[in-house]
């Protein structure tokens, strides 16, 4: 059983009497009396009409009331959609230790959240809230309702990571292996000239497309897990002004999910540019609340630069090429990221516009994206390898090389003949080094495909 949260003149009459003509005066009096009598009749008739009108009005109000009541009942009876609506675990909804942990903690494979979270820790943190109201119950709900989740937790604001430090920092260190939250500081470097690893020809031939993206969240809004419909729309309105500040080479068109035509939706879906929500694990943390309001995509004229608004984090800045030209794609990302930050500063008048931290780097909803917030990826055709060893084994191999494999339509999507290979690490390493990780892994996976019989 689950609980559904989600996140009315005065009439003047004058009679003239002619004293010199009494007969006419009598006739005038009679006419006046007749008029008065007729007036009384009209008044009575008017009164009856008014009563009938009031009755009709009351009847209409009653009908409207019944309609609203019926509408409210229908809304209350509407079954929540786990792919979009925030559905809390029954115990977590009551701020109690989830009974589901009995089975979760016995499982052979557990999410990072489950490996860290204990009943003692939960009891200690359950009544604490971050600056914007995030709770430990909300933080772990996705991992409790989706036990197969790899990470199993999300943050609601920058302060979440520090308010629940005893929980989040161990999670961060388990994912970002080797990073010490007590002593390390995040670094950043997007210099394309420092990319030394070369993509081998056999790998380049198999690559369908290259995408490198980075996540950014605005410092003056809560993260989307705590966002509201109004807040998301406000972000979209702000970014529409920012898009107008871009240099000519990055100019393009902004499409809102709530106003796109069916033809536009089909066009961008077919190009794999459009995000569509419908993710169980993200929905369980509130990512998709009030869908599709406040969501949108920006596409440059040459389709080499793309932005996602309020998909997960506030902003996803994406550079892409329909080939394996990784250096060109990475250089475009650096240019786009700077244009976005400069534009937001210009429109808002603020000096520091992104949520960031000296230790954790760029702040994101998911602890796995902290640091650079960057994911460099390629879609590579490896049908023989998929058939021979399966997707899960490909992912396991990729993780030994600091990378991961996903479905070609995004995380948790179906795998057919191609996979998405991307860097695994985000925190504590400069961006150019993460591109090294991805290229090395792609070269190795491509070689394995060629070796398949």
Helix amount, in percent? Answer: 40-55%
Biggest β-sheet: count, sense, barrel?
8 strands, antiparallel
Order of helices and strands: EHEHHHHHHHHEHEHHEEEHEEEHHEEH
Helix- and strand-based class? alpha+beta
Biggest sheet, spatial arrangement of strands = 4-5-6-7-3-10-12-11
Query: What is the number of E strands?
Result: 12
Mean pLDDT: 86
Give the helix tally: 16
Low-confidence spans: pLDDT under 50, at least 5 residues? 1-33, 70-75
**Measured distance between first and last alpha carbons:** 49 Å
Strand proportion, as a percent range, falls in 5-15%
Indicate the radius of gyration in whole angstroms.
Answer: 32 Å
Seen as an oligomer or otherwise, the chain set is single chain
Shape: globular
Description:
The strands form three sheets. The chain has an eight-stranded antiparallel β-sheet with strand order 4-5-6-7-3-10-12-11. Strands 1-2 form a two-stranded antiparallel ribbon. With 453 residues, the chain is of the alpha+beta class. The relative contact order is 0.12. The protein is globular and about 55 Å long. It is built from 16 helices and twelve strands. Helix 10 packs across helix 13 and helix 14 (383-389) crosses helix 15 (391-399).
Q: Could you give a short description of this structure?
A:
The protein is of the alpha+beta class and 453 residues long. It has 16 helices and twelve strands.
Please outline the helices and strands:
Elements: E1 2-4, H1 22-77, E2 87-89, H2 90-93, H3 101-104, H4 112-116, H5 119-125, H6 136-145, H7 158-163, H8 165-175, H9 201-204, E3 207-216, H10 229-243, E4 252-256, H11 262-270, H12 280-283, E5 296-300, E6 305-309, E7 315-321, H13 326-348, E8 356-357, E9 361-362, E10 374-381, H14 383-389, H15 391-399, E11 403-407, E12 418-423, H16 431-451
Antiparallel strand pairs: 1-2, 3-7, 3-10, 4-5, 5-6, 6-7, 8-9, 10-12, 11-12
């Amino acid at each position: 059983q689950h609980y559904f949260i989600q996140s009315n003149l005065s009439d003047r009459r004058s009679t003239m009497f002619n004293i010199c003509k009494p007969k006419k005066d009598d006739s005038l009096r009679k006419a006046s009396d007749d008029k008065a009598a007729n007036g009384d009749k009209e008044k009575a008739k008017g009164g009856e009409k008014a009563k009938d009108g009031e009755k009709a009005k009351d009847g209409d109000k009653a009908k409207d009331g019944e309609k609203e009541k019926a509408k409210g009942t229908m809304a209350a009876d509407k079954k929540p959609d786990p792919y979009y609506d925030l559905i809390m675990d029954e115990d977590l909804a009551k701020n109690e230790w989830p009974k589901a942990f009995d089975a979760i903690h016995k499982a052979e494979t557990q999410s990072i959240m489950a490996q860290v979270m204990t009943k003692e820790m939960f009891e200690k943190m359950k009544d604490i809230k971050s600056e914007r109201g995030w709770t430990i119950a909300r933080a772990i709900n996705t991992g409790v309702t989706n036990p197969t989740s790899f990470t199993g937790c999300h943050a609601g604001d920058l302060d979440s990571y520090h308010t629940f430090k005893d929980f989040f920092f161990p999670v961060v260190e388990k994912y970002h292996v080797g990073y010490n939250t007590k002593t390390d500081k995040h670094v950043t470097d997007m210099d394309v000239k420092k990319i030394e690893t070369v993509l081998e020809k056999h790998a380049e031939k198999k690559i369908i497309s290259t995408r490198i993206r980075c996540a950014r969240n605005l410092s003056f809004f809560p993260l989307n897990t705590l966002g509201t419909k109004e807040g998301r729309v406000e972000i979209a309105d702000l970014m529409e002004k920012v898009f107008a500040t871009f240099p000519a080479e990055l100019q393009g068109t902004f499409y809102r999910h709530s106003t796109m035509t069916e033809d536009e939706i089909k066009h961008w879906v077919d190009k794999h540019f459009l995000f569509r929500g419908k993710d169980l694990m993200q929905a369980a943390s509130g990512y998709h609340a009030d869908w599709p309001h406040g969501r949108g995509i920006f596409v440059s004229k040459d389709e080499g630069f793309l932005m996602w608004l309020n998909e997960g984090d506030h902003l996803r800045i994406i550079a892409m090429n329909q080939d394996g030209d990784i250096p060109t794609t990475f250089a475009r990302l650096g240019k786009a990221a700077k244009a976005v930050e400069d534009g937001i500063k210009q429109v808002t008048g603020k000096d520091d516009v992104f949520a960031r931290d000296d230790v954790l780097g760029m702040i994101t909803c998911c602890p796995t994206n902290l640091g650079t917030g960057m994911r460099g990826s390629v879609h590579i055709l490896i049908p023989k390898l998929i058939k021979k060893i399966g997707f899960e084994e490909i992912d396991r191999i990729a993780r030994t090389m600091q990378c991961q494999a996903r479905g070609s339509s995004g995380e948790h999507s179906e795998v057919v003949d191609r996979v998405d290979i991307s860097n695994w690490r985000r925190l504590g390493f400069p961006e150019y080094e993460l591109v090294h990780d991805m290229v090395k892994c792609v070269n190795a996976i491509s070689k394995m495909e060629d070796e398949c019989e």
